[in-house]
Amino acid sequence: MNQSPPTPDTTTIFALSSAPGRAGVAVIRISGPAAQGVLQRMVAPIPKPRVAAFRTIRHPETGEALDRAVVLWFAAPLSETGEDVVEFQVHGSRAVVAALLSALATIPGCRLAEPGEFARRAFENGKLDLAEVEGLADLVDAETDAQRRQALAQAGGALSKLYDGWRARLIEIAALTEAAIDFSDEGDVSASSFAEARKRAEILAKEIAAHLDDGHRGEILRDGFRVALLGAPNAGKSSLLNALARRDAAIVSAEAGTTRDVIEVRLDLGGLPVIVSDTAGIREAASEVEQEGIRRSLAAARDADLILWLTEKEESIPPLGFSRETSLVIRSKADLPHESQMEPGFGDLAISAKTGAGLDRLIAVISERAKQAVGSQTDPVITQARHRQALETALADVTAFLAESPEPIELRAEDVRRAAQALGRITGRVDVEDVLDQIFSRFCIGK
Question: Which of 115, 166, 190, 379 lies most in the core, judged by the most C-beta atoms within 10 Å?
Fold first, then answer.
């Protein structure tokens, strides 16, 4: 089903598009049919479209000067939203911003924008597809250089180009299948058309399957490489967390069971986002609160990409069944005298959060594991669970097209149509109203 044309919104929206608070410059954006009228009431003379001009901005009712600022006007459809758009680049004081927003609210047909409404209008006017919108949201949220590069590629259409290309090929496969139906009374034509459709579907199925078999590297980069610190009480987990964060993120105490909940810090290691979680010490707990803390510790371990088991004593390593591929044994408190009594070769690394010994090596190991998890990022990768679900649906439908009996052929044609629809939902080429609110609500009000 094709995307339904949006219901025209005749209101004009405005919002602060830069960060709130005191700043050198603040950007107030206006979009909609009344944008040019806003210029006529607040600025004279009106600047030429797409030419920056320095103007006095006045209150539309009283004529009071509110600020002297840079003014830009983008006439529809050559704007970010596809509508008439005005930008006021004003001085970034709270008083100036408040005065401008208050003045705009007095103009009939203008209202404060809702979260993500500028991006949603850009989508509805064909300026962005859904995958590009999600890339733009990730770009706004990017904390590391690698996240920025991945989000910028997606916002620029890298994923959309791949998925739209696959959808176009599915439409061709569907056309060949429909031709086999239309020429069913001509055996040779029908058979050759359907054979060609299957040949193309086999190639496409392999490409989609290879794309899905990516170790979730795009999602890991987007959400962060998760490291869980586990161990017995007082094994040094909170001290290590504080050392990695370079601040007192967790309470450190000699009293066993001090950490009751999972505490997270976000790190930027070599441009990669790493989330380190301090957890409650694992032991036979007496209180219900500590038992809940241990349950959460084990849950964090299950969700982690890498587990660091901290221990002072060789015999304290529990039989929790952690995979050695995703876990390391860390000999903590290497500055203490008993460290010399450890068996040679015991543990993967020895560290001291107190003296800093071994921390550089541990950080290097975590960074290398994170790099291995996200890969080279040279090709477009899946970044959203929504995309993965749609791709899995498309692959299942293509697989059914290949595996099921050709008769009745109408059912095989339906398999291909469903696969094309699944891919279309990623970019918004088909009706996706159920996911729009979720996507656009991630944005701030001025985006």
Answer: 166
* Strand, coil or helix: 85: strand
Per the listing, tokens 């939203």 go with 81
Q: How far is the C-alpha of 333 from the C-alpha of 234, rounded, in Å?
A: 10
Residue 277, strand partner residues? 228, 264
Number of Cβ atoms within 10 Å of the Cβ of 444: 17
> Can you give the pLDDT at residue 260?
53
DSSP letter string over 394-421?
Answer: HHHHHHHHHHS-SSSHHHHHHHHHHHHH
- Distance of alpha carbon 155 from alpha carbon 148, whole angstroms: 10
Q: Give the residue carrying structure tokens 């543990």.
A: 347
Q: Under DSSP, is residue 253 helix (H, G, I), strand (E, B) or coil?
A: coil
Residue with tokens 């044994």: 329
CA distance 334 to 337: 8
Tokens describing residue 153: 């590629």
Q: How many CA atoms lie within 13 A of 139 on its CB side?
A: 15
Question: pLDDT tens-digit profile of 133-161?
Answer: 999 999 999 999 999 999 999 999 999 99
pTM listed for this prediction? 0.80
Report CA-CA distances (Å) from 66 to 12, 98, 113, 276: 21, 10, 21, 47
The pLDDT tens digits of the residues spanning 279-292 come to 876 666 556 766 77
Residue 55 to residue 45: CA distance in whole angstroms: 8
Closest CA to 26 of 87, 90, 120: 90
Enter the DSSP assignment of 350.
E
Angle between helices 187-212 and 385-403 (to 10 degrees): 150
Contact 54, 61 (CB under 8 A): no
State the sign of the Cα–Cα–Cα–Cα dihedral 261, 220, 311, 250. Answer: negative
Among 120, 122, 114, 48, smallest CA distance to 83 is for 122
| Residue showing tokens 């849950």 | 299
